[in-house]
Amino acid sequence: MCGILGVVSQTPANQLLYDGLQVLQHRGQDAAGIATLDGHTFHLHKDNGLVRDVFRTRNMRALLGNAGIAHVRYPTAGSSVDHNEAQPFYVNSPFGIMLGHNGNLTNAEELKKQLFVDDLRHVNTNSDSEVLLNVLAHELQARSKGPRLDVPTIFAAVSAVHRRCRGAYAVVAMIAGYGLLAFRDSHGIRPLVVGVNETALGQEYLVASESVALDTLGFKFLRDVAPGEAVFIDFAGNFHSQQCSDRPSLNPCIFEYVYLARPDSMIDGVSVYETRLYMGEYLADKLKREWDGVDIDVVIPIPDSSRPSALQLANRLNIPFREGFVKNRYIGRTFIMPGQAMRKKSVRQKLNAIGMEFKGKNVLLVDDSIVRGTTSREIVQMARDAGALKVYFASAAPPVRFPNVYGIDMPSRNELIATGRSDDEICREISADRLIYQDLDDLKAAVRKNNPEITAFDASCFDGNYITGDITPHYLNVIEALRGGGNANKLSDDDQMELDLAANATSM
Fold first, then answer.
1. Which of 170, 277, 374, 390 could form a disulfide with 362 if both were Cys (CB 3.0 to 4.6 A apart)?
2. Residue 438: how many CB atoms within 10 A of its CB?
3. Burial classification of residue 405, based on how many CB atoms lie within 10 Å of its CB (0-12 exposed, 13-18 middle, 19 or more buried)
4. Which one-letter DSSP state was computed for residue 413?
5. Which of 14, 74, 20, 21 is nearest to 43 (CA)?
6. How confident is the model at residue 411 (pLDDT cuts 50, 70, 90)?
7. Cα 254 to the center of its chain, rounded Å
8. What would the pLDDT profile of 105-153 be if each residue is shown by its tens digit?
9. How far apart are the first and last CA of the chain?
10. What does DSSP say about strands 97-105 and 167-175: parallel, antiparallel, or unpaired?
11. Cβ-based neighbours of 422, under 8 Å, separated by 6 or more
């Protein structure tokens, strides 16, 4: 889950990109970067940290030009501490290309080998985004006739990228001397939208992970980039688009609606906020069916993503809704913090209970989801410490039982509290009195209420169905071992060989 932006403007792009990254900060707090293009010269600044900490006045002044791309990152592949893996990435051949990527390539190690042996290209980091950049660069070079590019050649190169790359990817790239390229994987897993702004000097275009960036920067929403589609905006402001996949299909990541996206965003024709309201309605109906006679005095959301669901649930059940936790907004999101101990420690720093809302009451806590269970367990204990008689827990999403390999940091089955446990066992693990989960069919229905044309989703973290069709137990064993979540003693010889190749890829 990263955030990407790309702009072709009539005025300097640096402030637009900075402001856009601030709006997309929720999509990644590990690193930030902006690259602008002034004529044929790229200007780049990137580093680890929040947007406000990475960029100073001197950095902004050096980002010259009316076009550029930007990125906020949290790591799902590569190292979380190496500032060299902050994006955008750059290659100087052919033409000079800057690229930012949201998602995860599931065949990155195979592509690294191809790049080194067949394409004679060197990948200098562990990031799959640099792999994707080099694949794009190679395909542009292979299809260009001489030193010049044209739009059909660019789209042909994207088609070749789709044939070679598997997984989830939404991409923005600047090609020196030509323009802004953006494209989305053939399954449409990660979101990408495009907007336009009419100015006295001419049209401006902005591509972003979420529509909220368009809203806040004054751009009019044009449309979502379709699965498999590429759009190209040249520096004269001409807009080109083409379907570059042989078999595109829309399978948006359903976890975007549950947690990742801002509530004021629209993704694939679906309001994130309205979806979360519907999630509360469906969960309330399930409570009526299965918890008849359970005495609930108050419904309390766990800030912030669950608030719409909790509010609608309370309204539908005619139970008082109260704010029981105050959030310290200067603490990062615990979901994307690396390491169990850091997440556990940050919960008490991030939330504080309002005692009067808990004391002597049976409370229903509503959260958007339960992933590792660490946060849930701490919050249940906070409610008890504040004087709650009973603490019930409701998840607006189904149990997360499977790793996500498409760009969300929940890779290890050992880390997921729902893997191998029943609902009753999970309830005991988080020390709640009762626990209820959303049904997956109801979650899908909540999204489809906004856009009935969506017939399929990437819901792999809930159902274990990996829509790219290439995820095997071998693959899961390797990524878990790479991230320290698996048991190295259980790796097969083939798994260990793949692990060794992946660990040594940058020294080949």
1. 390
2. 24
3. buried
4. G
5. 14
6. low
7. 11
8. 999 999 999 988 888 888 888 899 999 999 999 999 999 987 889 999 9
9. 28
10. antiparallel
11. none
E strands present in 115-192: 167-175, 179-184
For the beta sheet containing 67-73, the strands, ordered from the edge strand earlier in sequence to the opposite edge, are 41-48, 31-38, 67-73, 3-8, 202-208, 193-199, 220-224
Provide the CB-side half-sphere exposure for 83 (13 A, CA): 9
Separation CA 101–CA 35 (nearest Å): 13
How many Å apart are CA 211 and CA 215, to the nearest integer? 6
Residue 401: count of CB within 10 angstroms of its CB: 16
Q: Which amino acid is at 12?
A: P
Between CA 367 and CA 131 the distance in angstroms is 36
Residue 120 has what DSSP assignment?
-
* C-alpha to C-alpha distance for 109 and 115, rounded to whole angstroms: 10
Which residue type, as a one-letter code, is found at position 461?
Answer: C
User: How many contiguous H segments (helices) and E segments (strands) does the chain have?
Assistant: 17, 21
Instruction: Enumerate residues 6+ apart whose C-beta is below 8 A from 156.
Output: 139, 143
b (16+ CB within 10 A) / e for 104-114: bbbbbbbbbeb
What is the C-alpha separation between 370 and 310, in angstroms, rounded? Answer: 15
Q: Please compute, for residue 255, the number of CA atoms within 13 A of its CA located in the half-sphere on the CB side.
A: 27
CB atoms near residue 247 (< 10 Å): 9
DSSP letters, 467-496, are TTS---HHHHHHHHHHTT-S-GGG--HHHH
Torsion sign, CA atoms 206, 147, 127, 184: positive
Rounded (to 5) percent helix, strand, coil in the chain: 35, 25, 40
How far apart CA 179 and CA 280 sit, in angstroms, is 44
165 is catalytic: no
Cα maximum dimension of the chain = 77
Is the omega angle on the peptide bond into residue 441 within 30 degrees of 0, that is, cis? no
Give tens-digit pLDDT for 298-346.
999 999 899 999 999 999 999 999 999 998 877 655 544 555 555 555 6
The type of residue at 287 is L
Burial class (CB in 10 A: 0-12, 13-18, 19+), 452: exposed
User: What's CA 252's distance to the chain center, in Å?
Assistant: 11
